[in-house]
Design brief:
signal; single chain; 8 helices; globular; EC 2.7.4.6; nucleoside diphosphate kinase activity; ATP-binding; Nucleoside diphosphate kinase; 169 residues
């Protein structure tokens, strides 16, 4: 066979310390999937310069959602939230890059779409807090927990992005 030739040598082969990159758990909720917004939402994170580390479609169940929303389980609206979140499959994503947790929240917009600026995902694609399209981790600590909850270890992949040297100093 043909010998494998590595094409991974970057234009600037200057060695530099590996950046400690954070990850965020971003989830497209059942309404976002049913409305065909998966591609648009993925594109926004790709175009910003973030790197996909995990991606899958999943039908969530009550037990999983009770862990994910453990701080909301006692709220009066929790049964309605549960019904919404199990009404169809969700798209689970782990996105990696500089400040992706805080930036992800900015890109999503506010919990209430009315408070979300145009240009954000919620500010562009939805009208109701009950059908607000997407979830994003609110802290690095919660992001790590949520990624571990929604993904198996082998489903989150460490890999080099060919664009990295053009996005980061
Ligand atoms: P976020 O998703 O913006 O982090 P929360 O974690 O507070 O917001 O709430 C989780 C989800 O529960 C929201 O995205 C929304 O779908 C729903 N939700 C939260 N608060 C309310 C509310 N007051 N009325 C209706 N739905 C709510």
């Amino acid at each position: 066979g043909v010998a494998h030739v590595s094409a991974t040598t970057a234009p600037s082969a200057v060695s530099r310390p590996t950046m400690a990159m954070e990850r965020s758990y971003i989830m497209i909720k059942p309404d976002g999937v049913q409305r065909g917004l998966v591609g648009k939402i993925i594109t926004r994170f790709e175009e910003r310069g973030y790197k996909l580390a995990g991606l899958k479609l999943k039908q969530a169940d009550e037990a999983l959602l009770k862990k994910h929303y453990k701080d909301l389980v006692d709220k009066p609206f929790f049964p309605k939230l549960l019904a919404y979140m199990i009404s169809g499959p969700v798209v689970c994503m782990a996105w990696e890059g500089k400040d992706v947790v805080a930036m992800g929240r900015k890109m999503l917009g506010e919990t209430n779409p009315l408070a979300s600026a145009p240009g954000t995902i919620r500010g562009d694609f939805c009208l109701e807090v009950w059908r607000n399209i997407c979830h994003g981790s609110d802290s690095v600590e919660n992001a790590d927990k949520e990624i571990a909850l929604w993904f198996g270890e082998a489903e989150v992949v460490d890999h080099e992005s060919a664009m990295q040297d053009w996005i980061y100093e």
